[in-house]
Design goal:
About 35% of the residues lie in helices and about 20% in strands. It has a five-stranded parallel beta sheet, sandwiched between helices. It has a single domain, classed as Rossmann fold, CATH 3.40.50. It has helices spanning about 15-25, 50-60, 75-80, 95-110, 130-135; strands spanning about 5-10, 30-35, 65-70, 85-90, 115-120. Helix 2 links the parallel strand 2 (about 30-35) and strand 3. By secondary structure, the chain is an alpha/beta fold. Bound molecules: adenosine-5'-diphosphate (ADP). Adenosine-5'-diphosphate binds near residues 21 and 128.
Amino acid sequence: MARIALFPGSFDPITIGHVNVITRSLDLFDKVIVGVGHNISKNYMFPLQDRMQWIKDSFEEFPQVEVVSYTGLTINFCKEINARFILRGLRSSADFEFERSIAQMNNYLESSIETVFILSAPEYTPVSSTIVRDIIRNGGNADAFVGSGVKLK
Ligand code: ADP
């Protein structure tokens, strides 16, 4: 059975931290599906189409990386796409506490799906979409922190 992982997130926008997690996961899985969330109650800075296209363009040389959008429960979407793994990145103990409860709740809901964590490379620990958005909002240059396919202007 193919080892398919879903990497869920907002990717608003995709950063070099996300790219690093995805790239490092490629040895573990046959296919990594980047699941871009769209939730009406969340205020994204960038439209779904841009967030998805930027990920596709950042990984155009990697046929094992696919980009899809989804709504609803992550574990339900995993079942739809036959993903047995959820991939998440960890930067800090704050990430860990947050991720632990989500992964444990997902495990209660669906024990056949395993969450796999990749620890951030030290140079990417301070990188977050939130800070990238702050830089952009304030007129700074965030190009060094986003995926190669991201076109901010
Ligand atoms: P969400 O809205 O679900 O938090 P994000 O797009 O912010 O989505 O993040 C998706 C995943 O990527 C999360 O698991 C997050 O911890 C991880 N991540 C974000 N930035 C980094 C980074 N710099 N290094 C490693 N993992 C990261």
